Amino acid sequence: VASLVQSLAELPMNKKITMALVLSLAVLGCDSNKPQDSKKKLADQWKAARAAVQYSLAKQEYEAGDVDSSRKDCDQALTLNPKLPVALILSAKISIEKGQLDRADAALSQARELEPKNPEPDYYAGIVYQRWQKFQQALEFYTRANEKAPNEPSYLLARVETLVALNKSDEALDRKSVG
Fold first, then answer.
1. Going by C-beta distance under 8 Å and a sequence separation of 6 or more, which residues neighbour residue 70?
2. Taking the CB of residue 35, how many other CB atoms lie within 10 A of it?
3. Cα distances (Å, whole numbers) of residue 17 to 6, 11, 49, 56, 119
4. Reported pTM
5. Distance from CA of residue 40 to its chain's centroid?
6. Distance, CA of 126 to CA of 105 (rounded, Å)
7. Torsion of CA 96, 101, 107, 109, to 10 degrees
8. CB of 69 within 8 A of CB of 38?
9. Residue 56's closest CA among 42, 70, 46, 38?
10. CB atoms within 10 A of CB 18
11. Which of 17, 14, 9 is nearest to 58 (CA)?
12. Contact 90, 76 (CB under 8 A)
């Protein structure tokens, strides 16, 4: 189901609608002779597919600068699938943009639990803590993100900038400690 959700999230909108229709026909067509557990499983898969489509719409709206519509569609995606990490991260980004840092922190905490190897929740948590002016905690999150994705320049830059904010310029300039 997770790979289906991820695949659907990456498709263009017209293909998502087509895939959603195909999936719904498959669900309806396969439903007639299945036991109750299979019906629930198919219903859950259908909700996950709908959540992926809602998330994709929310992501497109966010990228277009329509934060309010993005919030609405992201919330709908999370209502359908509260454990969709990409939607949790997008929700956090929207919350950061709107100054709702507590809400962002909660979404990022969930995303970190669901995908501990994903550096994005750590990076955005660093942003939240930096906005709260809790630079040591921000540094810890940026460091984790940088360790998970050492080739991502924005993670390294955020880490170095936070070291400078903490008056650790020598450490920021030391190549061994930053990369």
1. 58, 59, 61, 62, 90, 94
2. 8
3. 15, 10, 10, 11, 30
4. 0.77
5. 26
6. 10
7. 120
8. no
9. 70
10. 12
11. 9
12. no
- Angstrom distance (rounded) from CA 52 to CA 44: 12
Cα gap 108→128, rounded to integer Å: 10
Residue 50: CB atoms within 10 A of its CB come to 20
Residues in the chain: 179
Please report the sign of the dihedral spanned by the C-alpha atoms of residue 90, residue 12, residue 61, residue 150. positive
Nearest to 143, CA basis, from 104, 161, 105, 132: 161
pLDDT, tens digit only, all 179 positions of the chain: 555 555 655 656 556 565 655 555 555 555 445 567 788 888 889 999 999 999 999 999 999 999 999 999 999 999 999 999 999 999 999 999 999 999 999 999 999 999 999 999 999 999 999 999 999 999 999 999 999 999 999 999 999 999 999 999 888 787 655 55
